[in-house]
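ARCHIVE CARD
Drawer: 12
Card no.: 0347
Subject: one protein chain, sequence and derived structure
Cross-reference: see card 0346
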Amino acid sequence: MNLTGSDTEGLPLDELWKVAPEDTRRWYESLTLGYTESPGHPLLRELAAQSCGVPSGSAVQVFAGATEAVFVLLNVLLNPKDHVVVIGPAYQLLIDVPRAIGAEVTEVRLRREDGWRLDVDEVRRALRPDTRLIVANFPHNPTGALPEASVFEELLGLVDGTETLLLSDEIYRGIELDPQRRLPSAAAMTANAISVTGVSKALGMAGVRIGWTVTQNAAVTARLLDYRYWTTLATSAPSEVLAIAGLQAAPALLDRANTLVRANAATLASFVESTPGWDWVPPAGGTCAYPWLTATEAQAFSEWLVDRHGVLLAPDVMFAHTGQHLRFGMGRTLFPEGMATLAQAWPEWQRATS
């Protein structure tokens, strides 16, 4: 039982066609399986731009998943010895790829004692004359943190009009526990930001493997395309049409994701807030939550839990964040069953370790 997966429940194809336009379905069924355009299908790029509040599809470069988008973007923007500020704890890709390139990374960590609040002043203090890039991810994986709009604007103000750029990983944008908390896309707010997102998390279409970058910086988009010729060259034609259908049906798919995550968040809250030995800062957005054990080492418990009961949780060492945290993923339909098993297993663990 996977209690830690960061995606939302995979969308059945027949459910997609119940909410997507009929002409898109006919297009998909009659599709010619040749090469696609390297920047991405024009309609996909237009829909992606609209979803980020950017006026033109020319601002979009489509990739084979957001992972490829992040990998290519980091390799385009960074050189050895460049300085990067990463807001952590972070998904490994966001921090390890800059290091692999040879960049010097300063990690500015969200802290649970601050309620996972983003401290923009701390980010500002980490900047140097050679800082090439700030890397942010909101809603945040693994904590579920989501800054207030004014704080996010302050973060963007650090790069606006400077030589420093912001990589804004927005793969969870659209899933918010409070719908009024949805942040605007960074790419719509400053030409110094590059937003990265796709269909995998909020739309429940991880298997489609389509993601994209959005930026008003035309030079960055051109460099992304040049680099892309040496990776996947072009994306899958069926996947592009499915991604188009997903964006066309985005209101229904986002409602599906939010309904599921909010119900599962309530289940997790009931457990954490009533069970001695657990504590948390409730998540504000995305699929992830990051409770901690007050008197137990997270890795030892997670290894015991999967070996003994077949329930998978990611300990914080997976995020280079040693301590007592465990990442929960609240996007799966079997989450309540997994939580029921965890609730039964916890007293057994306490007896075994007392």
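Annotation on reverse: The chain has twelve helices and twelve strands. The chain has a mean pLDDT of 97.
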